[in-house]
Amino acid sequence: MKKGKKIKTVRVGVHRKTVILLWALLITSVVFGIYKNFTAIDQHTIHEKEVIEQRVIDTNKIESFISDFVRVYYSWDQTGEGLEERSENLKLYLTDELQTLNQNMLGEHLATSSSLKRLQFWDVERVDDNTYTVLYSVMQTIQTTQDKEKEEVTAVYSLSVHVDDQENMVIIKNPTVSNIPEKSDYEPKAVENDGTVDAAMTEEVTEFLETFFSLYPTATEKELAYYVKDDALQPIIGEYVFAELVNPVYSLKHDIVSVSVSVKFIDQKTRVTQISQFELKLKKGDNWLIIE
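Given the sequence above, the corresponding structure tokens read:
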């Protein structure tokens, strides 16, 4: 029998360099993956929350200290005994330097006497850990020596006070003329009807508001629940009688009627007219309801 031709077999050995390299790469990848799993850094976004500790400043002690000082500083008479007592009392509040500075405050020929009528604090501002600036106004009653006429004088001052770690205080800056806030010329934009509420709805809403505010001064919580949703308005305390609505302004958006209105009440105790301003939102279901 004729033998068949033998097929040559090519063997790839496990120790060839290429195979070794592939195995090394695989093992390295697995080891690195395990390492990363145990030492992974959380990649989620970290929101750092900075907590700022605010120190609450109790200004009552400072105001009490300054109040006592002001009563001494802005009061005097013409008698030598009274002036000497005032000078001694100021030592309880002023540094030695300020005591010297104020020695000749009243002059050699004093022609007036003064008494403090009113003190009003406007601001106590913390400058640093131990220093505060105090803004205040005083009203003095000044009487002249010659004609005994009295005059009320109002002025504004600021001073600085040092508060030590034991909360002891001393004035370190003399009362210095200053100013207080005045009336701003700001005028809010007037609210006007925008035409979104027609005449029929205007009549409905006006009638509802007149009914509600007639009952409002004496209404209980249970009674208010018929007109007001979720305590949008609380019961009021006082003897008031509804008089009229003043300049109601209506606008409609998504079935909600916004109302800006002044309401005139008569105070039965004082017999004066009291005008309250309301910003309301109304919605109609079975009946009109104040929802805000």
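Residues 199-290 form a domain with the Nuclear Transport Factor 2; Chain: A, fold (CATH 3.10.450.540). Try to locate this feature in the token string yourself.
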